[in-house]
Amino acid sequence: MKKVIIIGAGNVGKNALDFLGTDFVECFADNQKKGKTAYGKRVISVEEAVAWQKDHILLLAVTNYLEELQGQLSSLGAEKYYCFSEAVYFFDGIKQWDYRKIYEKNSLLEIYGGYGLDKAVIVGKRNAYADFISELFGIEIEENGIDTYTEDKKYLLNMGPEEAESFFHRWNVEDKSNIFILPQLQHEKIRQNHENLRVFKGSYAGKRCFIIGNGPSLRMEDLNKLQESGEVCFGFNVIHKAYENTKWRPDFVCLNDPLVIAQNYESVKENNDCPLFVNDRKLFYHWDTDENEYLLHDIQDKLYFSDDIVMGCSCGASVSYTAIQIGAYMGFSEIYLLGMDCSNWGKHFNEDYWEEEEAFREPDEMRIFKAYQIAEEFSRTHGFRIFNATRGGCLEVFERVDFDSLF
User: Fold this and answer.
1) Is residue 33 part of a domain?
2) How far apart, in whole angstroms, are the C-alpha atoms of residue 269 and residue 271?
3) Is residue 407 helix, strand or coil?
């Protein structure tokens, strides 16, 4: 069994440590924190991590500076490394075939050790997660199936339902207590065009809307004013935590960050009757899709302004950027931002906005502001305008307007 060096000693790296279990992790590697200690593990340089690669597994666990670190690993001659997927961390991904849940924030060490999966074989397709598990535990991947089946061996199936049923039929498997499934991180609906979004094209042509941020400047009396005036509004994430203090309700709610979706999707659905725009990576965690729910494909590798949300929305490291692209697609001629402080990033209109046990990612401020600049330039050449009606804050990319003067 090889030990892992986690590259990135921030919040995502902590998630990776929790996911693996401390005994599987040798140390962290981080350009900024080398020589220090993080979460009980020493921190070495990225250069040292690559030098130790022969006897270790490198796991890149960051959201910020991902491209820079990948470039650094390449320049240092890193032969192979994996990227930590928070989808794996929050997905109830290790289950026995009868779907009895056995993974509730237990570490891989606890899961595999407790169920004897270190003596298993992976049957099915080869992908990054299967390769990682194979290398970590030193177990084989049988891509072309197995020659024999025995009930005293454990089988990790990395395949879809139809393939699995074929596997059971071939070997006449009735007792599935020795069958486990790996998380399927590619769902058939993910990365496809979402044609049902077409209904929104130009549906609010010439009108105005308000995109409501969750910053500390957001006032409940301002939300009440929007309600009284019948304004079309977009809310984000757990905006429903404001509902007990206002009659206002959004017309649309957007969820984009996989961490927010994994931890809050059910509560968002429970507290909102309006249409939901949800990152299609939601299918990593929740397979059902309501008729009032619209999946969006989040394009992370290219920063631009999408003029066709059916084909995807460019990720600007903020759900607000997704909402602006949706608003433009709907035809709004004026888009007003409220509660978008872009300062005091860890604070919100409600001190209990995040639950104590929840994980959240640090904001990529540089990418957020770059995305806003792209949106501003796009709006000026495509027949709509974006205004910042936030009370205070430090967002100066868009023209400032006084909120009270709008009514």
Assistant:
1) yes
2) 6
3) coil
What range defines the domain where residue 13 resides? 3-84
Q: Which residue has the higher pLDDT, 12 or 118?
A: 12
Cα angle 59, 110, 49 (rounded to 5 degrees) comes to 20
In a domain? residue 188:
no
Mean of pLDDT values over 211-239:
96
257 and 392, same domain (yes or no) = yes
Q: Which of 149-153, 231-235, 355-359 has the highest mean pLDDT?
A: 231-235
From the list 146, 143, 112, 129, the residue with the least C-alpha distance to 1 is 112
pLDDT tens digits, one per residue of 257-278 = 888 887 889 899 999 999 999 9
Question: Which range among 20-34, 61-75, 182-196 shows the weakest confidence by mean pLDDT?
Answer: 182-196
- Return the C-alpha torsion angle 234, 314, 263, 259, nearest 10: -140
Distance from C-alpha of 276 to C-alpha of 99, rounded to nearest angstrom = 28
Q: Which whole number is the average pLDDT over 57-82? A: 91
Q: 367-391 in b/e burial notation, b at 16+ Cβ within 10 A?
A: bbbbbbebbbebbeeeebbbbbbbb
Q: Which of 124, 158, 181 is the last residue of a domain?
A: 181
Structure tokens at 46: 């990225």
Identify whether residues 60 and 102 lie together within a single domain. Answer: no
Q: Does some domain include residue 299?
A: yes
